[in-house]
Amino acid sequence: MPGKMLENVRATRPLVHNITNYVTVNDCANILLACGGSPIMADDANEVEEITAVCGGLNINIGTLNSRTIEAMLIAGRKANELGHPVVLDPVGAGASKLRTETALRIVREVKLAVIRGNISEIKTLAAGSGTTKGVDADTADAVTEETLERAVAFAKATAKSLGTVIAITGAIDIVTDGEKAYCIRNGHPMMSTITGTGCQLSALTAAYVTANPEHPLEAAAAAVCSMGLAGEIAFRRLTEEDGNSTYRNYIIDAIFRMTPEQLEAGAKYEIR
Amino acid sequence: MPGKMLENVRATRPLVHNITNYVTVNDCANILLACGGSPIMADDANEVEEITAVCGGLNINIGTLNSRTIEAMLIAGRKANELGHPVVLDPVGAGASKLRTETALRIVREVKLAVIRGNISEIKTLAAGSGTTKGVDADTADAVTEETLERAVAFAKATAKSLGTVIAITGAIDIVTDGEKAYCIRNGHPMMSTITGTGCQLSALTAAYVTANPEHPLEAAAAAVCSMGLAGEIAFRRLTEEDGNSTYRNYIIDAIFRMTPEQLEAGAKYEIR
Amino acid sequence: MPGKMLENVRATRPLVHNITNYVTVNDCANILLACGGSPIMADDANEVEEITAVCGGLNINIGTLNSRTIEAMLIAGRKANELGHPVVLDPVGAGASKLRTETALRIVREVKLAVIRGNISEIKTLAAGSGTTKGVDADTADAVTEETLERAVAFAKATAKSLGTVIAITGAIDIVTDGEKAYCIRNGHPMMSTITGTGCQLSALTAAYVTANPEHPLEAAAAAVCSMGLAGEIAFRRLTEEDGNSTYRNYIIDAIFRMTPEQLEAGAKYEIR
Description:
The structure is a homotrimer.
Chain A: H1 2-12, E1 15-19, H2 25-35, E2 38-41, H3 48-54, E3 57-61, H4 67-83, E4 87-90, H5 98-110, E5 115-118, H6 120-128, H7 149-163, E6 166-169, E7 174-177, E8 182-185, H8 198-212, H9 217-238, H10 245-258, H11 261-267, E9 270-272
Parallel strand pairs in A: 1-2, 1-3, 3-4, 4-5, 5-6
Antiparallel strand pairs in A: 6-7, 7-8, 8-9
Helix pairs in contact in A: 1-8, 1-9, 1-11, 2-8, 2-10, 3-4, 8-9, 9-10
């Protein structure tokens, strides 16, 4: 099934509008091209409606947000809703500041989302309507491990139901759920956390996948998560003893570029709960 | 002749002021250093006149424009004109939104440009004073191919004449013309379109080339286009079966860094029409 | 001693708040992760106090500054002071425009700084309260060489004393001083100047080092400078004849990622004056 989702990305070449942070924006653009999609970045309130209209999907990422871009996010989100385009939200750092928490919560309230992709702390912040995270990384206390998985799945399902969207919580084990069915995904490599923006990149990928598979947001988001993790595994195997996180970043995007539907189908490691 | 143009870049190390988008800005800076130039990025209206004054050329790229940076583009452009510095415009996404189209047209009207570098859809938008493009990539219907080349050259020449600037239309075949003479360039590789910002990088390169060769804007722009395409060819030959667009991006900049005037002279594939 | 400083970075994983330019921000984030720290980027005045409060240190870089971010720099700087967090200033392009010079001088006046890291022209601008630089690179006339070293050390010490902070002047020979003691560092490679943002990256690294070694800002800053230079040497040795500045950039970050305290201790080349 993940292979089929990727096949549809390659076949339809979804154009994704991104309003995203300036830290990882280049990687987001390159990974969208790598998967077979096409990126456009635009964040001025005066043009986001038109830009969203020529695209098939919208990816909103609140890292390095500011009052100018927040307004653009809301305008673009409403326009995408009007046109029936899927919208992905990456609530980067929700819980770390009032501005981020409130912006994320406001987007959740005012925009119909197809997928929210974040770490467990960020999703907990959205679920609680408040919270604290250590910077943009997940609190260790929140980590999803084999021990806490059952509880985390229950939490993710309840949140997906209450927010009416697919929730993708990524970490050592990833959980993707629409409230009924949860994919528990064991792809990936710990070294991925030493690169800035693997989460941002995954959110962009997810937007491409859900845009190309509009009838299957849950399966599409799960496939995107599997593909990112699998790319992390493939890229890790290429590293020499001199390579570090910068080369690793390049190799992950390379692996997304080279990934075939067959490879993804065979390499995806998930169970459904 | 392209070799001589590069020689002058290496000899004079042109300092280029860039007002550009935040998606590909790092690549633009690194490719300017790679070719032998030197970049400075500054987009605040309160400093762009001074920054432009210490530079030799100006590169204006309207990707991720906003009201704050649009003002800075116009101020910097007028100052560069006053000082006789060459100005390159990259009308990223002109046609995709009113804001981009109107901004590009306003810059064309208010700033004397040495070169406009864009894809065929963007240049058509400028020529028509309006238009539509699919995001930031060229419409397939507009593609310059062997079949449409003659018509495209005529269009490019007419546009260059009417706008009073060198026009560089890049795609499968590139056309660079001052209205009288047109270089049709067949360097490059299709895989270049899988990297974000090869166009932006080329515009930055072009600014370095025209700054270093002020008497020969047509030949300088054509040489810059040849060098980018040749770098795409050289970089492609280095790729292994595991490499994708991220490594390709690095190798293209590397190839610009290593390129000698002799190599460019020998590798440039162009005819004059 | 430099090895011990790195050991403390790895042990404490300092979270560094960065308000920095959009040109090199991704590299700054990745090099912070590479050294063992953790980055968070946030530049909106409405959230920088909270973000700085969850971090251990603050890195202010004035490249691509604008009125919105200048305000955020000052707010964050004052908050960091209140909390006793070390603040690093990178006065990118001070001397190139009034806006940059005045902003840098204002930060120096209003924020207590642990370290100022810049090239000799930028530091001279701060010392003089005015000045000129050629773009963002140091004036050749200002270069620190064996011939001018003694004079430069005296200048650096006097500046450190009068500004009440550690001064790190980087170039062919680097000088790091608190006004009493000066480290003269001979690590690095000339090719580092062909990459955009090695200075910005070093400032981010320095912030991680001083955050992890709060009692030893001079030694921490000197260790950060040694580590960056050593990474430049290690990365240079990996380059093939086809590699250029883009691959070099990746390899430098990789070398920071792989660097052990023992390697830094053995490879650091400094004398104390």
